[in-house]
Amino acid sequence: MKSLSFFIILFSFLGWNIVSSKDILAEKNYIEEEVTDGGNIVGSVKYMGDLAMLKLDLYGGWELTDTSKNASEKLIASRINNGLKYAVISITNIAKGKKRLIPKTHPIIDQQRSNFIPHVIAILAGTTIDILNGDEELHTVHTRTIKNQPFNLGTTYRQRISRKFDYPEIIKLSCDIHKHAYAWIVILDNPYFDITDRNGYFEICDIPAGTYKLNVWHEELGNIEKEVTVYPKKITNVGFVYSQN
Amino acid sequence: MKPKVLLDKVGLWSATVVASTALILGVAPMTAKAINVPTAVTEDGKNTYKKYCSPCHGEEGKGDGPLARSMLPKPRDFTRGAYKFRTTPSGSLPTDEDIFRTISYGVPNSTMIPWDILTEQQRASIIPVLKSFSEAFEVRKPEPPVNVGLEIRPSEKSLAEGKKIYEEKLECWKCHGVEGRGDGPSAAEQEDDFGFPIKPFDFTTGKFKGGNSDRDVYLRFTTGLNGTPMPSFAKELTDEQRWCLTHYVMSLIKPEETCK
Predict the structure, then answer these.
(1) Can you give the pTM of this predicted structure?
(2) Are residues B17 and B95 located together in one domain of the fold?
């Protein structure tokens, strides 16, 4: 009897370890509930590198310039406040919270002047994205995933391709005819995420009170993680900084 | 059991079934439909793989066997579940019949020979082994094969229509070149999903990797070649246009030049 309870304790301990180390993938365990007195996390992501090295902000104007053909959107930071665009912020270890609302209107990635717009998109697992070709020439959209079914499709002017993404994953979308062009689809398993705007700001709302791991992902600069405590009906401010190296 | 006893037991009806199965087997020896693919990995399959396939494809199917080192194209890395030659849509896993077909016919212009020295049963027994290398087969199922429209007869008109698709609508020439020599403006920079350089197919050689029939060619650009830059053009064409394009692609074959 003694040895049995010992084993039970041992196993529950091991089990806990396995779960906690895999919490990033714990989509099956997420429980939806009404969040009435949740708090918010608001903050910014900054890049303190050499701004002189940065490429154009392609969205300076509504109309894209011709240089966009070759300008890279790899690293875009505001010259005014060093705010970093296209960083994805997410809570990685949340077990329960607000409903996972899959948008009925499909988010769009458009291929225009041989670039993918937007360059980074963050979605909830189960979301369908429409991929458009707005150019009067052939493009391809090519992904290389294993769990989400990959695809590689040739598309002509005005073609619209709808694809559903079921598993959390970071997917690179590229065109084999315009090698400089690519985009990222970041798929998350819970609804607590946001993507920074052109001034590096983000906001995540209706989080049940508690302490969470907040992760930032950026394609060039990698990941940063912070622990953040959320209080009922309060706003918690968080700042992330990527230094030069 | 002696044949006679068997006949008595199961009756004439099943004897006809056996006979007609034998007939089908005789007519179409290469279709895997008549072949019995085990549902799980068997000892026989494992041993056959180890003996005949692992020197190139590697013990764990990563395409890194001892013979693979200086080889191009590389032996397939099975861990991604990316198969080039399929009847299923872009990105989908292949059917068992697709895999069986590739093993039986091999891949021309590569070191992958037709494995007809193995019995059909041995070839079939390897299929579950290949699938076990990739988690893709655990989370996904192959989609149903794409529809191959009723073939139209090649004519001057269908060739002209095919040429237009090749040169203007779908711009195949960007990779395959205007004359189909695999030397289009985007050809040099292509690489496969594993990071190795890959050449757009040179149609003039006529030695299609996925088979030489009209139907094979039709299927290749309809389904795409998974794991390569060759995309699927599933949504872009009607069935009839597909046949026009197929006939045009076949007309680019220049066997006399490749003999030299």
Answers:
(1) 0.84
(2) no
Residues B130 and B203 in one domain: no
Question: What token pair was written down for B50?
Answer: 């180890």
Handedness of CA A60, A66, A67, A68 (dihedral sign): positive
pLDDT tens-place string over residues A58-93? 555 445 544 444 567 888 888 888 999 999 999 999
Q: Tell me the pLDDT of chain A averaged across its residues.
A: 84
Q: Cβ separation of A152 and B169 shorter than 8 Å?
A: no
B interface test, pick of A140, A164, A167, A172 with most B CB neighbours within 10 Å: A140
Other residues' Cβ atoms within 10 Å of the Cβ of residue B63:
20
* Partner residue facing B170 (CB), from A147, A156, A176: A156
- Check which CATH number belongs to the domain holding B39 and give it: 2.60.40.420
**Does B95 lie in the same domain as B65?**
yes
Which residue among B139, B193, B233 places its CB closest to the CB of A144? B193
CB contact under 8 A, B90 and A152: yes
Residues of chain B with pLDDT under 50: 1-30, 32, 259-260
Question: What domain range includes position B15?
Answer: 3-23+150-258
Instruction: With cut-offs at 50, 70 and 90, classify the pLDDT of residue A54.
Output: low
Residue A142: the pLDDT is 97
Report the amino acid identity of residue B41: V
Beta strands A235-242 and A39-47, pairing class: parallel
Backbone angles phi, psi at B197, to 5 degrees: -65, 145
- Parallel, antiparallel or unpaired: strands A31-32 and A96-97: parallel
Provide the strand spans (E) within B148-189.
none
Taking only residues 113 to 152 of chain B, the set having a beta carbon closer than 8 angstroms to any beta carbon of chain A reads 134-136, 139-140
Q: What is the ipTM of this complex?
A: 0.81
Asked if B224's CB is within 8 angstroms of A176's CB, the reply is no
Looking at residue A89, which CATH number applies to its domain?
A: 2.60.40.1120
For A104-129, what is the mean pLDDT?
A: 95
Cross-chain Cβ contact A152/B229 below 8 Å: yes
